[in-house]
Design goal:
Blueprint: E1 6-7, H1 14-20, H2 30-43, E2 57-58, H3 60-63, H4 68-79, H5 92-116, H6 122-135, H7 143-150
Antiparallel strand pairs: 1-2
Helix pairs in contact: 2-5, 4-5
């Protein structure tokens, strides 16, 4: 069974993604912006499907980013906790879809914050979101930390 070699980005957020990455954005690359959006989407419990994709991105670019492929796997493991086979090679398509939908949810969240903020400063907004994540526990138990601690790993 052939698996995906690309992941989609939501067409409705092309302008926001362009603002988030590049010379004036808080992220150097589009992949980094999408990784942040996916992590934010999971943290805010916003997994949102989309129908109209923009230009696809090679999945290999995730492997070139520190923790890129791990992020895709961890999002799927947290989302589908009762099925460890979600991490099987033949289920990559499903893991990528989960990543895409969390990224869309994160981008929708960022768009909402920008629409209600007195300023459209993306650097400030991203910085505030990172500080919020670092200084406060999520409303629900941190499932990733729970999984990691239950593994009893000796780092």
């Amino acid at each position: 069974m052939a698996t995906v070699d690309r992941f989609r980005r939501p067409a409705q957020h092309e302008e926001l993604l362009n603002d988030l990455q590049g010379k004036n954005g808080p992220f150097r690359t589009l992949v980094e912006a999408l990784m942040f959006a996916a992590a934010l989407g999971q943290r805010k419990n916003r997994r949102e499907p989309f129908n109209k994709p923009g230009e696809a991105i090679r999945l290999a670019l995730m492997d070139g980013r520190q923790y890129g492929d791990v992020l895709i796997d961890m999002l799927a493991a947290v989302e589908i906790q009762d099925d460890p086979k979600i991490l099987a090679d033949d289920r990559l398509d499903e893991r990528v879809r989960i990543f895409e939908e969390y990224a869309n949810g994160g981008l929708n969240y960022i768009r909402g914050e920008l629409n209600t903020a007195p300023t459209r400063d993306l650097d400030l907004l991203v910085g505030n979101l990172v500080m919020e994540a670092l200084t406060s526990a999520p409303a629900e138990a941190d499932e990733v930390a729970e999984i990691m601690s239950s593994a009893d790993l000796d780092w």
